[in-house]
């Protein structure tokens, strides 16, 4: 539990300096430049400063802190994936999430609630059993539930959803949520306190490349020299990579979600169904959050659509019929950078000093701590890829060693 509130209450002089002072002027050069001021970008900067002593670091963000995909998601944290490589990676991330409030001395509102994923067919039940065993083998807390156990866990859930009744469920005890912007704030505050510079409204527009190294970045505020560059721009990954002629199988799609008006508490776990392409959770404020898979067409513009709203609400009402009487309060969208195997791209690029943090699709928020930690290790070591992220390198596509996580998300894509 963070002690900042207790110290504030007992202090005779509670006035303190702001967490985020006005950004300084850009220096002519930095040892490390991180492009992207979302959760991943500020996490990398934080771990570089705190654990590797690298503080001549600048985070460039074309908008504001955490204003991209970090703030346009549903804040789910889990590790119940399909492949050993992904399970080990996300279990490590869940472990870091649990201690972030204490590490930051700042409450990220981490709430372990469990995730229930519904199986509507025999083939899905078999796939869930395999996922359960892989997750448990590497230390995750996951088990199978039958219909009676599901009914006891979520009494208001309709088990006879249309023409696809619920047969069983994958119960992931480690499933959780956290305040997404608080995670970004905590990392950013810790990084800035240690000397990292955060520059909002600063867009990386082009690169100066000499002898296969990026020597400078051209921004809307001038040209800045750099020693190492890390790209962490989520849905805009392919745009930035194209400027350096880095070929990668990334396509960007909108991802939409919405919340209802607040209602009395009725749902503790996160409930999802890949057959219905829908997931439902209740927030701490009582709102019912409803989301699903990405839109079926590429687009770099985050916007909401009536078509997807109607489809999601139809399936949410199948799961919880009483929601038909609630009012929708707001709807939003983000953009997701999807790869063919639904796994991220982390590590080296064809440019010697340019490192990639891309291809996260719908999995970016839940990987924030472990991605920040491992990418910082990569930078601090001078390009030695940590074993935990080595399988996620860009070269896997040319070597045909994909890490297939299709269908491992809460709703199919």
Provide an overview of this structure:
The chain is an alpha+beta fold. It has a domain at 111-176 and 251-338: D-Amino Acid Oxidase, subunit A, domain 2 (D-Amino Acid Oxidase, Chain A, domain 2), CATH 3.30.9. Helix content is 27%, strand content 24%. The protein contains ten helices and 19 strands. The chain has helices spanning 4-10, 39-52, 84-98, 100-104, 122-137, 147-153, 180-193, 237-243, 306-319, 368-380; strands at residues 29-35, 57-60, 76-77, 111-112, 115-119, 142-145, 168-172, 176-177, 197-199, 204-210, 213-219, 222-231, 251-260, 270-273, 278-282, 288-291, 328-338, 345-347, 354-358. Strands 1, 2, 9, 10, 11, 12, 18 and 19 form an eight-stranded mixed sheet that branches. The chain has an eight-stranded mixed sheet with strand order 6-7-5-14-15-16-13-17. A three-stranded antiparallel sheet has the order 3-8-4, with no helix packed on it. Strand 10 and strand 11 form a beta hairpin. Helix 2 (39-52) packs across helix 10 (368-380) and helix 3 crosses helix 10 (368-380). The longest helix has 16 residues, at 122-137. It is globular, with a radius of gyration of 21 Å.
Could you give a short description of this structure?
27% of the residues lie in helices and 24% in strands. The chain is of the alpha+beta class and 413 residues long.
List the helices and strands and how they pair.
Elements: H1 4-10, E1 29-35, H2 39-52, E2 57-60, E3 76-77, H3 84-98, H4 100-104, E4 111-112, E5 115-119, H5 122-137, E6 142-145, H6 147-153, E7 168-172, E8 176-177, H7 180-193, E9 197-199, E10 204-210, E11 213-219, E12 222-231, H8 237-243, E13 251-260, E14 270-273, E15 278-282, E16 288-291, H9 306-319, E17 328-338, E18 345-347, E19 354-358, H10 368-380
Parallel strand pairs: 1-2, 1-12, 2-9, 5-14, 12-19
Antiparallel strand pairs: 3-8, 4-8, 5-7, 6-7, 10-11, 11-12, 13-16, 13-17, 14-15, 15-16, 18-19
Helix pairs in contact: 2-7, 2-10, 3-10
